[in-house]
Amino acid sequence: RKAGFAFDAKGKAWTFPAQLMADKLRVGSPKDITQEAVLKLVEQEHLMDLDAIPGVSASPTAVPDAPLVVAVANGQVRVSGNTYPMRDKLRSAGFRWDAPSQSWGKEEALVQDALGAAGLPMECTSDSVQHLIEQTEIKDPEKRDEAAAALKPLPEVRVEGDNVFVINSYDVKEDLKKIGFTWNMEQKAWAKSAQDLLSQLALSSTSDITMESLLDAASATEAPQPSLAPQPSLEIAGDTVRITNSYSIKQELRAAGFTWDKESVTWQTPLENAKLLCSAQDEQGVTIEAVTKAAAQKLSEGGEVPPSPEGKMSMADPEIKIVDDQVQVLSSYSIKDQLKILSFRWNVDVQAWTKSAPEVMDLLGVSTHEEITPDALVKAAQNAPPAANVARAEAYVTVDDTSVCVYNSYDVKDRLKNLNFRWDADRAAWTKPTEETKKDLGVEEDAQITMELLLQKCDAAVPSSPGGGGDMSKPAFVEINDRDNIVIVRQSYAIKDSLREIGFQYDQEQKYWFKSTSEVKKMLGIENQDDITAEMLVAKAEEGVPAADGGGGGFAPSAGNMASYLAQRSPSPARTDTNPGDQLEALSSMGQSAQGHTVDSPRPPSSAVHA
């Protein structure tokens, strides 16, 4: 609190605006804030000028001499009113803050005992309780923590329906995880199926499930070890060598002539090829060590494996499956062109080319599923009339308030790229904002956007760069956004690798690269931000900039989304301390949350940028 934090009751954490903290610690950027620096700040009670922050005051607004309000209900003594000046005494007297009731509470019986021990009337009246609090000596933090721990409720097991819940479980949560409990947000407790737990503990009744039995089971269970990446392994299946768990050496295997088989999820090569690779006389010499060593040598040399006696690598034969009246062709790479001719469609979910079974039966002129074979499909494709080779559903366009979508667009996708359309995997369509499209086409009404007009404009447009940076013939240029304190680089496809090297991040929505102005100035060693040029950035990238000097790593979210970066970087400083709490928790969440801080007004429109 003294350092300017505000408590967020929902997030149960003390929060502070990230950029303000960065300024206070003089680190320049929120990404440089460390837990050690914040803890040191809090420990030293290094006070900020809270009166200079809108909505925050360094002193409580309540009247200092206002009396406390004491109420007794449901076996609890509740103290509210002007409790801020008395908070340390309340803690030392064993009262605990209750956020929902916005009061300090303690069991009535314990308060009566404390009144009697202090020589006061044991009736919990406002005068007696206030007098008790006023004469309480403030304990040092260590003793107070010990007293609070003594009052902390013990873990408790509850059986409700088919589930077992453990409440007040923070101190035993690791034990509960070891025996399969999971956190239930609704119940605010750790939970597990009662039937599974009875089997695990070898008990016959839920009444036998106690906290002691759970802890005993946890102590007898070893904590799960961090999973280590499995090592590659080799097996020989007939005339084929298969490598599993091969991600770490996939480049080597590819260079050595292995091919990926999706169905078996392995890299494969004929046994004869593997023997040539390992210079082995028989299959006994084909081991994972020999293959890995030889494949790595091939990759370093950039060479190829000698061809097999058959002249080419073996490949899994196409396989037909009929699932839910749908024909699925697996391991189909060798006949994918024929399947396209027959209007099969690639299904990402099942990793196969698919088409309705009745349609395939009509196409082949057969009456049963068993007659649908890869050979029959290949023959049908060869006998198809020439028109079948282009028999694809025509592209069509839809328009709504936000997007123009082009479907069945495979044959026109390259033309759409010229007009900066982008592929939307969720919609399975090429899309572009409606207003931008109308502006490009020179039309005013949605109904005027037609497929014919789009393709005419696409054919007339200059092809855009692969990275969406526009015409690659245009040089990159720098803008300075003063409002967000960032350097923006546009038309940047030609220098994108250089920008990435020096820590710039790409904003997918705005289509530009960006980085904090202060970091760029520090990196380039200049004072005037208007001196920043694209040439200087490229030159700095060629020099090689260590991460510690502001180079690699950046500071924005990995997704490169500017909006999320600004939301993290610039929360409003206006905030309200709604909960006194009793200790800072989860400091590592600061800077990633605006909990406890309220925004006074919407963000103003973007300011002009200077070239």
Molecular structure report:
The protein is α+β, with helices and mostly antiparallel strands. It contains 22 helices and 26 strands. Strand 19 (396-399) and strand 20 (403-407) form a beta hairpin. It is extended and about 105 Å long. The model is unreliable at 45-63, 303-314, 387-391, 464-473, 547-562 and 564-611 (pLDDT under 50).
Average pLDDT over all residues: 76
Our measurement of the CA-to-CA distance between the termini, rounded to an integer number of angstroms, reads 43 Å
Helix segment tally = 22
**Number of E strands:** 26
The SS-based structural class is: alpha+beta
> Major sheet: order of its strands?
3-4-6-5
Helix content: 25-40%
Overall radius of gyration: 35 Å
Stretches where pLDDT falls below 50 for ≥5 residues? 45-63, 303-314, 387-391, 464-473, 547-562, 564-611
Shape: extended
Sheet of most strands: 4 strands, antiparallel
Proportion of beta-strand residues: 15-25%
